[in-house]
Amino acid sequence: MLYTGIDLTPIDRIRKSAENPRFTARVFSAEERAYFSSLSDPFPSMAAAFAAKEAFSKALGTGVRGFKLCEVSVFHTPLGAPFYAFSGNAARIVKERRLRFSLSLTHTDLVAAAFAAAEQLPVPAKATVGKAASIERTCSLHGRTFRKNHSRRRNRRNRGL
Q1: Which residue ranges of the chain lie beneath pLDDT 50?
Q2: For a surface tag, which of 24, 90, 93, 141 has the fewest beta carbons within 10 Å of its beta carbon?
Q3: CA–CA separation, 119 vs 123, rounded Å?
């Protein structure tokens, strides 16, 4: 199953909101705030991160319920690709629902945009005991499922062959 969320955030709105330290503490993690303080103009990045958090809540389909915005952090790989990091209740929700997120961010001089896509990972298969025992594995990169039937091998071992 695929879930999506998108959000646009005016940069000036974040610029005004960031004047209140309670806003930044409530919305951004300590690591995010440290990153923003290293930028000469942090507001486009702050707006993009805020939009990403809103897009995350929309992809969940719940809005911002059951977790705090500061539990959803936005970071970048060395090549600049954005990704989510979760903590607290947000991490619990993502784990319980078996979700894997992808994130895309952009901004202009006026607005920042975020698009979040969540893929529900398959339930890990359990090996069954009996005549039709099989092992099922899913490739996390391609999402393909592979099955191997072990019933003949088990039956021969059980009969001492």
Answers
A1: 132-142, 146, 148, 150-154
A2: 141
A3: 12
